[in-house]
Amino acid sequence: MTIRIALDAMGGDRGLPVNVEGALLAKKELEHEIILVGDQRMIEQELSHHGASGKFLIQHAPTVIGMHEKPAEACRAKKDSSIMQCAEMVAQGKADALISAGNSGATMAASLWHLRRLPGVSRPAIAAIFPTLEGNAVILDVGANVDCKPKHLLQFAIMGSVYSKAVFGISNPRVGLLTIGEEEGKGNELTTLTHPLLQTSGLNYLGHLEGRDLPEGNADVFVCDGFVGNVLLKFGEGLAAAVMRLIKNEVRKHPLAIFGKYLLKGAFKEIMKKTDPSEFGGAPLLGVNGVALIAHGGSDVKAVKNSVRTAAAFVEKGINRQISEQLHAHALSPAPVAVSV
After folding, report:
1. Which of 85, 125, 296, 320 could form a disulfide with 61 if both were Cys (CB 3.0 to 4.6 A apart)?
2. What is the pTM of this model?
């Protein structure tokens, strides 16, 4: 099955060179059609530097939405931008998925503009994968919605459960509500009101979980609003990088430790691989009626390549269809009635 992926060639902190090189790497490893969206002349020049002229379809997009532009305003003003054209191509069936490492708010706005929401979804959510001692966990939302209502978190839980099952093959993913304490009374108004909805959702709901439960892998899906999720995600990325630097610095201080470094080289390599966000590439925007991946602004070549792999897997597994089915089933299922005895 050949999957067509529209890649925003102009997006991200590192821009065109990284996106083109990532697309070339993906083309070597994956049998999918990648359409480079952006300034045609600049893309052709970059491809020629790699001796790859004519190897990709190019969709000309004369403008770019900057990282610091206001998403909604920029999408309205720059309908011919690379992000907007990627979303339009998916909406028109010219591509099966889009990827952008550019302005994440604009990517979400463009996806909502052209793709709309899946039936039953009030708010789409960005789902990130976090490495744990037990494997990997899905966290959502990690930035699409700063302010949420209980019904939104319930939908996030359903979508996250479907995504975890599809990606990691977990038959009945464990779902936890991320808050400040395990006791039912702890948390803010949002978590207090969300808790009973999740209890009666039919999901494999574990209850309240704390931040320390995430690295332990005590659930497969962690649900929170986008403010909490984004802070948690950025902290995790920073902590992983800081710990590796601390280890390297300490090894340099002790001459004999250099031998241990070589003995443990394989272990360190595996740890770095597990904690490297570029291993999964972009995070899917769950809940839109199409496939949209939001890649990190600092994405490197490997992240771009793996974003292509992740987007293709999303399409192949029919995750949007599964989300729609689960949301529909939940809407038709009456909530259990509490009986006093």
Report:
1. 85
2. 0.87
